């Protein structure tokens, strides 16, 4: 019996050994993406750090320790509220706070929604925690934007009778045009919600409420921090300024948002220069916090890897 035909490989059979690296890459892409985004975060933070990012620290630092406590709570707010959401959705472990902090840092120092890409990659590496994380990450991200738009529109309705008179005709056109864009970008998600969202309706409403609470809490905490830095201005005025800041940051057609807000707030409270210095200080402290967290997370990852 001729066994050569049996022993010889079939002409059409795939080379399974050659396919193994491809399969490994497919399985490892979340880790590779997460690593790449982490390196980009480190590079972006280093660029800001050495490119006058800490110039705000040259200003006089507030002496009231309550300023730093309020600012710390404000800084920790976004990832903490995200943790509350994903704790309910996935029962995410406390270690997930590191991924959520990286998500926030990536969004701020790289490009918008790069943090969501990082967090999705992080979740994909933990299939024992969640089998299909894309739907939840997508829903939470969309609801965050809708909540921001909803709170912004509510603030506009409350502030319009008092604040429109402070704006020029061109600035008023920016506001109305921005309102139109906000409504136009939110309506499709609400009209086609059954096709867009993956989570149950009860979960969607709960997530929306958490996002609204996050936004309002953040506005309150930054107002408190401003008050402790410049106590001669009443907390009531700072709360109004926090609402104005939220409006300026969410309106898409307003150019140079930082400058625009500082200008408007300076006119209202009469301390434009002091407020600009305070903004620069907060930006520098935020950058330092980003750098410290990324350095800590990277060191922890290296130590953990060496122990394995």
UniProtKB/TrEMBL annotation:
<feature type="transmembrane region" description="Helical">
    <location>
        <begin position="29"/>
        <end position="46"/>
    </location>
</feature>
<protein>
    <recommendedName>
        <fullName>Flippase-like domain-containing protein</fullName>
    </recommendedName>
</protein>
<feature type="transmembrane region" description="Helical">
    <location>
        <begin position="140"/>
        <end position="162"/>
    </location>
</feature>
<keyword id="KW-0812">Transmembrane</keyword>
<feature type="transmembrane region" description="Helical">
    <location>
        <begin position="204"/>
        <end position="229"/>
    </location>
</feature>
<keyword id="KW-1133">Transmembrane helix</keyword>
<feature type="transmembrane region" description="Helical">
    <location>
        <begin position="281"/>
        <end position="303"/>
    </location>
</feature>
<feature type="transmembrane region" description="Helical">
    <location>
        <begin position="66"/>
        <end position="86"/>
    </location>
</feature>
<feature type="transmembrane region" description="Helical">
    <location>
        <begin position="174"/>
        <end position="192"/>
    </location>
</feature>
<keyword id="KW-0472">Membrane</keyword>
């Amino acid at each position: 019996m001729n066994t050569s035909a049996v022993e010889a490989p079939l002409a059409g059979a795939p080379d399974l050994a050659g396919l193994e690296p491809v399969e490994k890459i497919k399985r490892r892409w979340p880790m590779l993406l997460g690593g790449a985004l982490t390196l980009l975060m480190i590079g972006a933070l280093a660029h800001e750090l050495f490119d006058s990012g800490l110039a705000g620290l040259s200003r006089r630092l507030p002496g009231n320790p309550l300023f730093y406590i309020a600012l710390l709570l404000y800084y920790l707010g976004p990832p903490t509220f995200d943790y509350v959401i994903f704790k309910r959705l996935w029962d995410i472990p406390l270690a997930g706070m590191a991924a959520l902090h990286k998500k926030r840092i990536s969004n701020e120092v790289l490009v918008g929604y790069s943090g969501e890409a990082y967090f999705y990659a992080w979740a994909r590496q933990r299939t024992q925690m969640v089998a299909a994380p894309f739907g939840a990450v997508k829903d939470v991200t969309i609801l965050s934007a809708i909540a921001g738009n909803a709170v912004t529109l509510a603030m506009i309705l409350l502030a319009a009778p008092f604040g429109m008179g402070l704006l020029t005709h061109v600035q008023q056109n920016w506001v109305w045009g921005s309102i139109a864009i906000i409504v136009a970008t939110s309506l499709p998600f609400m009209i086609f919600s059954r096709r867009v969202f993956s989570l149950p309706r009860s979960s969607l409403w709960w997530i929306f409420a958490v996002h609204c609470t996050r936004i309002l809490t953040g506005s309150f905490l930054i107002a408190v921090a401003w008050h402790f830095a410049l106590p001669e201005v009443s907390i009531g005025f700072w709360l109004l300024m926090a609402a104005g800041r939220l409006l300026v940051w969410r309106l898409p057609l307003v150019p140079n948002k930082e400058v625009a807000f500082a200008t408007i707030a300076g006119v209202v409270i009469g301390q434009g220069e002091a407020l600009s210095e305070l903004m620069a200080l907060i930006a520098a402290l935020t950058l330092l916090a980003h750098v410290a967290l990324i350095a800590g997370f990277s060191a922890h990852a290296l130590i953990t890897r060496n122990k394995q």
